[in-house]
Specification:
With about 120 residues, the chain is an alpha+beta fold. The protein is built from two helices and five strands. The chain has helices at about 25-40, 65-75; strands at about 5, 20-25, 90-95, 100-105, 115-120. The protein is globular, with a radius of gyration of 15 Å. This is Phage tail protein.
């Protein structure tokens, strides 16, 4: 069954026929991961412990190890991510100190490998 396509921070999209756009399984997993990582802790009133709040770390002095640990803990809670093999999280710093997160994981819905890059992750 198709799900509605929605990238966190964006509006719903329309398909070429004018209906609400739907998403396939691999894109659905990516959207779930991004939503979990970018949602501020406490922003979902029905699940106050949901979210990593990565966008709230921008401008802070959080270390790359702390960012990686936060991402790892949230991915462990995400049913759409296989835990074996364990997701690989690489955090790098840009020239002006901004952090970039690259996450490699196995999609639980398709079994395939996927990579997400999040600029400005802290």
């Amino acid at each position: 069954m198709a799900d509605i396509a929605h990238v966190v921070g964006s509006d719903l999209q329309l398909s070429s026929s004018g209906d609400v756009a739907t998403v396939d399984q691999s894109d659905w997993t990516e959207q779930r991961v991004l939503r979990r990582l970018l949602t501020s802790l406490g922003a979902y009133i029905w699940q106050p412990a949901y979210g990593a709040g990565l966008s709230g770390l921008i401008g802070s002095t959080v270390s790359t190890q702390q960012i990686a640990a936060l991402i790892r803990s949230q991915l462990a809670l995400e049913a759409a991510i296989l835990q074996q093999p364990e997701p690989v999280i690489a955090i790098s710093r840009g020239a002006s100190g901004e952090a970039f997160a690259t996450i490699s994981y196995a999609d639980a819905t398709t079994g395939g490998a996927a990579i997400i890059t999040i600029p400005g992750a802290g």
